[in-house]
Amino acid sequence: MTDLSQIVKAYDVRGVVPAQWDEPLAELFGAAFVEVTAADAIVIGHDMRPSSPGLSGAFARGAASRGADVTQIGLCSTDELYFASGSLGLPGAMFTASHNPARYNGIKMCRAGAAPVGQDTGLADIRALVERWADEGAPQPVAAPGTLTQRDVLTDYAAHLRALVDLGGIRPLRVVVDAGNGMGGHTVPTVFEGLPLELDAMYFELDGSFPNHEANPLDPKNIVDLQARVRETGADLGLAFDGDADRCFVVDENGDPVSPSAITALVAARELAKHPGGTVIHNLITSWSVPEVVRENGGEPVRTRVGHSFIKEEMATTGAIFGGEHSAHYYFRDFWNADTGMLAAMHVLAALGGQQGPLSQLVAQYDRYAASGEINSTVDDQTGRLAAIKAAYQGRDGVTLDELDGLTVTADNWWFNVRASNTEPLLRLNVEARDTATADRIRDEALAIIRG
Fold this sequence. Notes:
452 residues, alpha/beta, 7-stranded mixed beta sheet, 23 strands, 37% helix
């Protein structure tokens, strides 16, 4: 049987091109996607990687062979594909490997209305069907194949975002944007056009070889250029998008990174002003400041596991108005519960431009604690190391443990979470405390056990 175990992930399909992931396989995925979702029409988009147009086209042919009409929106960001899925009411597929290096590519798939396709909501069935067809041969095309239609939705996507956050009345701002040669270079000019923003564009040329740096702003080395440009030019802030531009990272006027938890809290306060009493989702490694700010603004915080599919499921179940993750994914009810870094960036611009102080001063009220950031450790036995941590802290006075996602250990003035990676032999540690000395002490204590 064809082994797709290293290609199929929690909510996407990803592999090295073309060794694992080629056009004949993409065509099978297109056919299987239509079979499993029972869709009579779908929408497809792709990023700027050299392999993306071919993979996207093959997927479209596979979908059409099963009778689905395919709308191809071409070059787009992932959140632009979600917009198309939501506004057109169609299942969708986005060809991208997000922030991963150039040699990778993949698919992010969703049902109509940008609803996620997760392991338990169709992805396992798609995988099983592709494996069967790869061994036995694909079925014959249906008698009436679907059509292929080209459509540009960029202008409509930008108009929708601008209807959700009004930037027309803000004070003029100088904004440096590092698109990392990714899809932010495609979407930012249209979204920001005509706004009171002086845009300083860095690496807007679409280039899937990523000649300047990897399009992964979560890695500090990839925002060094942005930080330097903000400091050199005296800009009000800097924005960095990942490769498919569904995540946005922020640096302040000093070039210092702003915690995604602080952005989550800031946006939550703004969304609660529009929707009083609303529910806000946050994953369990966001800062204590997030639920505090939500409650202070009359909202109801709900804690959930880390990950796209869990956040979206909880958004739908609770009717939440907003959700945020420490990885800089931001989810909005007004955007079909999907994640869009662009909309979060617009909220930051609106908040900053609506008052006279600098961004560092604005976000200080939302950034209240000392944090370690995520620390990865390679281990031989993830289960055994987690058990060792649990044994070390279980029964300590004033300490509670929960296993919602990995292991979270909480005391009065600190907490930490350890989670196993699904794809690598890693344990991921996040620590937060009320002061830096305590955060450092708990970090070192936990790492000593993890690294055994």
